[in-house]
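Hello forum,

I keep getting stuck at the same step: I have a sequence, I want structure tokens, and every attempt I make locally crashes halfway through. Rather than fight my setup again tonight, could one of you with a working pipeline run this one for me? It's a single chain of 66 residues.
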Amino acid sequence: MQLTVNGEPRRLATSLSIEALLAELQLAGRRVAVELNGAIVPRSRHAAALLRDGDEVLIVQAIGGG
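Reply #2:
Ran it on my machine without issues. Output:
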């Protein structure tokens, strides 16, 4: 399965949820916003949102500072 994650092609052996993708990218538990094919996916739907071949995922991590 082929995805585009933050503009970079990424190959996955099987379909994953957004939650599983974040874990694989070591972003689980971090403050991130996820967009799937141009639509924001609320954190409450990360476990249920399954990725499909050709999907485009944008992940933005919130960074604090001052």
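The mean pLDDT is 94. If your local run keeps crashing, start a new thread with the error log.
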